[in-house]
Structure formats: C-alpha cells, structure tokens
Write a structure and sequence with these properties.
Its main location: membrane. By secondary structure, the protein is mainly α. It has helices at about 5-10, 15-30, 45-50, 50-55, 55-80, 80-100, 105-115, 120-135, 135-165, 170-190, 205-230, 235-255, 265, 270-295, 310-315, 320-325, 330-335, 340-360, 365-390, 400-425, 440-465, and strands spanning about 430, 435-440. The chain has a two-stranded antiparallel ribbon.
C-alpha cells in the first residue's frame, strides 16, 4: 500500500477529535505515574519497613525504566505499529499498578513502579500517531495538547494523591492508577486507529540493550551520586561505564544496517539543538517540582518555608499544569503563524523569567503561585514546540523513535535537576527543632541553577535553523 493509501486508512473510521482526546488521556495517565508517590515519599521507609536508601528505588527505578523504554518503544512503534505498542505499554502500567497495590514490602512496590515507568513511551508515540492521522493545519494544536499532558498529569494528579494519602490508605494510589490504565486501554483499543505506516527491517536488539545499559549507568550515577558519594567507586564506575557504553553504542549504530536510531538524522542541527534544549527545559521544570513544594511545606521558622499543608501545597503547584492545558490551542495557532522555533525561544525565555521572579520575590504564597503559572506558560509552549521541530526534520517513518529520543533528553534534564538540587538542599541547611532543613540560601542557589538552564535552552533554540532541510517529511516547514 502506498503512502497516500496508508494515510487514508488511518483517517477513515474514527473522528479525529476523539482520537486526539483519547491519546491525550493516555498521556495524562502516564504523566501521573511520576507524581503518584510524591506525597508518600518521605514516609516510605516507615510504610515499607525498609531503609531510606532502599526506598529511594521506588522513585529511581521509574526514572531508569522510563528513560530506557521511551526511545525503544518509539522504535518498536515505528516498526510494528504505534497503537499496538501503546496498548502494550498501558498493559504494563496496569500490571505494575496491581503488583504495587498488592505488595506488602519494598520488592513488590519497586517492581510495580518499574513497570509503571515503561508507560512514558505513550506520549511520544501518541504524538507520532497524530502526525499519521491529522492534516498539517490541525497537527500543531493536537501536538500541543499531547505535550501539555506531561505537565498536566503530574500537576493535577499531585493534589489527588495528597488527598488520598491524608485521608485513606496509600495502597489506593496504585488501585487508582490501575483503574486509569484499564480505562485508557479500552479507549485506545476502541478509538485509536491501527497503524499502517511502518518501517521495514529488523529490530536492533543489540542496539536496544546497549542503549539501556549505557543510560542506566549514567542515570544511576546522576540520581544516586548524592547518596553514594560523587567520587565513590560506585558513582564513578556507573557514570564512566555508562558513557563508554554509549560511545560504543553510537559507533555500532553508525555501522548497523537497521539501527535503533539513525544518528545521522539525530545529528541534524534542528534535531540536535532541539534535543539539547530539551535537557535544559527538563532541568528547569523539575527544578520547580523539587523546590516549590518544599518551600511551601517547610516551617516558617526555617526562614524559607511558608508552613502550608501537603494538600494546599499541591493546589498551589497544580495551576502550572492547568495553564499548559489552557494554552494548548494558542500553541497551535502560534506554531502555524510564527513557527515552532519562535515558540521554543519564547517558552524557554518565559521559564527563565519565572526563575528570576523567584529570585526577587519568593516570600509569600502568591509569589510562588505566580512563578508557577509562568513556568506553566513557558513549559507549555516549549514542550509543544519541540516535537513539531523534530517531526519537521526527520522522515515520517522515524517520528516515533525521534520523539522518543527527545523525551529521553527531557528525562536526562529532570534526572540531573533531581540530583543536583537535592544535593544543594542537603548541603545548605539550618537547624529547626533539632532537624536540619534547607536554608533560604539553598533555594536561592537552586533558582540560579534553574535560571541558567532556561537561558541555556533559550540560546540553543536560537541556534536552530530557520529553514531546516526536510527529508521525506510530509509536513510543511514553518520552523
């Protein structure tokens, strides 16, 4: 079947708005997995009767699996059908949620969280499906909506989790996740058309294993370095070993007939600078996720805290996700009129402004609310622009894998932010009631780091070519 026949087959049965809505819902469910356990993170040693070093894996394992699974699932979607792989990922989400809900100890929860992490791949796959089924005029708005789910799912889910933890049993968090997964599975099966645009060739199992091993090494060093010691053998061995594996993996990919990822495409200036900017945006976004809730919940006596409850803090953080959702239609209009490159530069600049605002004003609850709204504006525009830039610079049969790599770079930024800011907050403390808590200076340093990451991402966005070369792409260029 030719390319036009393939595209016609994708668009004949299901209303496009319904397909977009279902894909966005799956994105919300996926993003919620990352804030699912935030309200109970500090209580995990008590709840699971385990050491704090062991319970840290409840968060770390999700990050590791997500980083590895996202580009691999993207490639699998390009080869074997994007909807099919989305259904598999949702199935893993359901299985992981059930395992964690029924677990009585640390082992079961870690296994469940690992399976939940795999579902992150539904977001780049959903964006790739949208490219297959939507006309160019409607693609920008749909991609903006799908991209917004990365922030909306976590921001809206956080107060829900906080409410459950404060009034009900923590196992209900995982039962809720399983129920959401079942709903998503049914909706995707019914309303997302089967994929007929596929990439021929064999799946690169060696490349997938090499990428996973290299990423695990690097991300382990980043995420656990503060606990292990940055110069400890474990940290250095993981980090250096991971980098060496990734270098070897790159050499192998350039010589493979059917690579997991075509690095020559990934090296195009548009793709390269967009992915590098994604690191900065991932860092800046997660930086506020680390700092703002702590500022809101710390006691006023610390000199930095505002003494709010967990639920109130979650409500203050939530508007950033809602803003991303509201501006999705505006993102589509801006992309069509001014281009994705402008959107990325504007979004990264807005995030930089939000951090500068925090450096000047962060002593009242409303200060943090305003800054969080600015973060939502900036991240909303940025996350909507990046997949559009990627899709306009890669062949149509590589959209799943290429968007997966872009999501991986964002995950790398969040990992670095988590490790670096946690180290800063742990190093600069004051004593409150016999307990060491982050000082005002610690948050100031974190805000400067977030601002620097946003400015770096803005500079990289300006380096993206105005009119990139497009090979075998089906979308007109406005970047």
């Amino acid at each position: 079947m030719g390319g036009r026949d393939d595209r016609r087959a994708l668009t004949t049965s299901t209303p496009k708005w319904l397909t977009v809505g279902v894909l966005a819902f799956t994105g919300l469910c996926s993003a919620y997995m990352f804030t699912l356990v935030v309200p109970i993170q500090a209580e995990l040693p008590h709840l699971l009767n385990a050491d704090r070093d062991d319970t840290a894996w409840v968060v770390t394992i999700t990050l590791l699996v997500a980083a590895c699974a996202t580009p691999i699932s993207g490639r699998l979607g390009d080869m074997y059908g994007k909807r099919r792989i989305v259904l598999v990922l949702i199935g893993l989400l359901i299985a992981g949620s059930l395992v964690a809900a029924l677990a009585g100890g640390i082992g079961g929860v870690v296994i469940g969280r690992a399976l939940q992490g795999a579902t992150t791949g539904v977001i780049p796959l959903g964006i790739a499906i949208m490219r297959d089924v939507l006309p160019p005029a409607r693609l920008g708005t749909a991609v903006a909506l799908m991209s917004a789910t990365m922030g909306v799912g976590g921001a809206v889910g956080l107060p829900v989790s906080a409410l459950i933890v404060e009034h009900l049993n923590w196992h209900l968090l995982f039962w809720l996740a399983a129920a959401l997964g079942v709903v998503a599975l049914v909706l995707v099966a019914l309303f997302v058309p089967p994929s007929t645009l596929r990439t021929p060739g064999r799946f690169d199992f060696v490349g997938a294993a090499g990428l996973a091993a290299g990423l695990v090494g690097v991300l382990l060093a980043i995420s656990r370095g503060a606990d292990w010691g940055w110069l400890s053998p474990a940290t250095l061995g993981s980090g250096i070993g991971g980098i060496l594996i990734l270098l070897l993996w790159g050499w192998y990919q350039l010589r493979s007939a059917d690579p997991l990822l075509d690095l020559r495409v990934a090296a195009r200036p548009t793709v390269l600078f967009t992915n590098l900017a994604a690191i900065g945006m991932g860092f800046s976004l997660f930086g506020t996720n680390v700092t703002l809730p702590q500022m809101l919940e710390l006691p006023v006596e610390s000199g930095a805290g505002l003494g709010q409850t967990m639920f109130v803090s979650a409500l203050i953080v939530m508007p950033s996700g809602l803003v991303m959702l509201v501006i999705s239609p505006l993102s589509g209009w801006l992309e069509r009129t001014l281009g994705a490159r402008f959107m990325l530069a504007f979004g990264t600049g807005a995030v930089g402004v939000s951090y500068l605002f925090l450096l000047l004003w962060s002593s009242e609850v409303w200060h943090l609310l305003v800054a969080n709204i600015l973060i939502g504006v900036g991240v909303g525009f940025s996350f909507a622009a990046m997949p559009m830039l990627i899709m306009r610079a890669v062949p149509s049969h590589e959209t799943g894998a290429s968007n997966g790599i872009n999501a991986l770079f964002r995950s790398l930024g969040t990992s670095v932010a988590s490790a670096v800011m946690a180290a800063v907050l742990a190093a600069l403390t004051v004593n409150v009631g016999g307990v060491a808590v982050p000082s005002r200076d610690a948050f100031v340093v974190c805000f400067w780091l977030g601002a620097a990451a946003a400015v770096g991402a803005c500079v990289l966005s300006l380096l993206i070519p105005r009119h990139p070369h497009i090979e075998h792409a089906s979308i007109p260029d406005r970047a």
